[in-house]
Amino acid sequence: MPLTTRSALAVRGVRTPTAVRRGPGAGPSDDGHLVIDGANVTLPIDPGSPYVVRDGRIYDGELDLGVAAAPVRRPAFYDLTTADGVRYEQIALLHGADVLASTVVQTCIRYAEAERCRFCAIEESLRAGSTVAAKTPAQLAEVAEAAVRLDGVRQMVLTTGTTAGPDRGAKHLVRCVRAVLDAVPGLPVQVQIEPPGDLDTIDELKAAGATSIGIHVESTDDAVRRAWMPGKGSVPMAEYEAAWDRAVAVFGRNRVSTYLLIGLGEDPDELVAGAASLVERGVYPFVVPFRPLPGTLAVRDGATGPTAEVVADVTSRVARLLREAGMSGADQGAGCAACGACSALPAAGG
Length: 350
Ligand code: SF4
Fold this sequence. Notes:
The chain is α/β, with parallel strands linked by helices. The protein has a single domain, classed as Aldolase class I (TIM Barrel). 33% of the residues lie in helices and 18% in strands. It is built from eleven helices and twelve strands. A seven-stranded mixed β-sheet has the order 6-7-8-9-10-11-12. The radius of gyration is 19 Å and the shape is globular. The mean pLDDT is 95. The site of iron/sulfur cluster has 11 residues, from strand 2, strand 7 and helix 11. Its cofactor is [4Fe-4S] cluster. It comes from Pseudonocardia broussonetiae. Pfam families: Radical_SAM (PF04055). Keywords: 4Fe-4S, Iron, Iron-sulfur, Metal-binding, S-adenosyl-L-methionine.
């Protein structure tokens, strides 16, 4: 799919009644899940979009955009329930056609209005009853086994809200990875953490069997970090840099990634320069358009997403940096960069 088409779809979304979709929750997306030309793609589902999925294709009005598209259907494991009465769907969700994802702790110490990331809705899905506050290692193992067996899941992403301890939630992820891999040996698993205080925790995540790790900064510009992430943005960039460097030493080059959000008001040249410094460190900058999600402070305050032109421009420049460095998302082995669905990078050769 051409990058311009992918970027327009990311910004305008599509109309389709049937795709599996996550509600607003952790991080920056509540998109619907589709398979487009054989690849996972997440797109906003918007009844007002000019683009529609029809007869296995995407149309702009009557114009066939020339891409094959199929909504991801509800997986079989969603209909199961643990012995203690928790629906599997409340423990982990299908992302794309083959990624299982869970927010293992659905609360965040930074969720008070003065601290909260303005694009995030982590506790909204908890309030809506669509998930539970904390997932145990045993629950995650049970759901992973079923999702692999029944629905062909091929990798797993484990993220967490920030907890009060000095590890910010990373230690619980160590236990979760161990339990999942006991149940499904060899399943590629990515963990997503804040810098964990004691950097040895990164070694523990690797020793537990994690394939790759995301340490998500969202922007490398301190002014943007303070404006959009008052709590998380107070963690000094030096802590992120130390954590990325340790992670690259432990997991390897291009087994570490970070999100960078397009559309937080950052100058595109500075965003791309930040991405370049990450690539130099061996960290994959997963550039993703900011989406204004219901329930977020951003929407309450009237924030809007980036234009398709900015998405295409930044994405194409970051993809070029990645290609020149020989870093592909697929080589991450697991995680968002390996999945690629939430970014236009795969359409740009990144
Ligand atoms: S890129 Fe990450 S958040 Fe997006 S669908 Fe894939 S695994 Fe889920």
